[in-house]
Amino acid sequence: MKFSNTLIHWYLQNKRDLPWRNQTNPYFIWLSEIMLQQTRVAQGLPYFLSFTKAFPTVFDLANAHEEQVLKLWQGLGYYSRARNLHQTAKHIAYEFNGEFPKTSKDLLQLKGIGEYTAAAIASFAYNENVPVVDGNVFRVLARYFDIDTDIASASAKKEFTQIAQQLLPIGQANLFNQAIMEFGALQCVPKNPDCNICIFNDSCLALQNKKVGLLPVKLKKTKVTSRFFNYLVFLDENDDSIITKRTQKGIWQNLYEFPLLETESAIADENIISSIQKQDFVSNKITAIHLYNSESIVHKLSHQHLNIKFWKVKVEGKIQNGINWKSIEKMPFPIVIHNFISSQ
User: Fold this and answer.
1) Are 311 and 232 in contact (CB under 8 A)?
2) Is 33 a catalytic residue?
3) What is the pLDDT of residues 269-304, one digit of tens each?
4) Quick one: fold of 132-157+187-218?
5) I need a labelling partner for 187 at 20 to 30 A (CA). Which of 150, 193, 283, 327 fits?
6) Its catalytic activity (predicted)?
7) How do 304-315 and 225-235 pair as beta strands?
């Protein structure tokens, strides 16, 4: 219990003042946890504020159009989180009359909520005595107890959850869980933590054994593939263009984009015209092609590196079903395309 008490005391002295803390509203807690998956607090905070302003209750989010949700999410990445968020809001609003389930077991049945998020909501909102185990918790426990289990292995989650459960003080799950996560985010950071000022520098086994920089162990590497995207920004005599919606499953589902020509490697400038003409993008005659960015924009995702070029393609006459630029600016796009649009 000394570990837990020391950690909670540290948390009460050092915690960041964040809008989803110091309250038990499960809607706000759920929003924050979904947004902060794979995302730093500094990046996620403005999105949380925008969402809660636009959708102050789960009913407001449920009644929103998906495009509005995706537009507000634009730039946060992992867009399946936003789509699942919207679907789950509808389920809670229409099936549960706006009431969130009160146990981690029941929360797990909702779309987009895994073990970690279910435990976080249940413990933060309802003080259920369940531990949360995220990357911060893995790191703190691995170092404090000098555990060299590969955290990417199948057995790691169970092992670390059992340890966290043993440390969890009954009746203080909300405080302890937030404390250990905050400690990993602020003090026991991934690289070069300042162990001299750490509250556990007299008991941390990794520090005693000079293994802080070696823990936690993560051996599994994500295979990264490279893809080559050529976006064709058609412009007619009115400077109207065309966009399409990515309806297929995968990255950026339900977001908009310009017509896409994907190639196996970077395409040479002299080959782009013939490649475009082989596709049925527009029937208008092409009058000029201009490469917007001579160097590819490399957009890094967790498992893919997208090498992106934008080609401005001028055509004769009017494009059928063309859309003006002001309308385009209102649509939800992947952030790399949004940045291009904003630069025009």
Assistant:
1) yes
2) yes
3) 778 888 887 888 888 888 999 999 888 999 998 889
4) Endonuclease Iii, domain 2 (1.10.1670)
5) 150
6) Hydrolyzes free adenine bases from 7,8-dihydro-8-oxoguanine:adenine mismatched double-stranded DNA, leaving an apurinic site
7) parallel
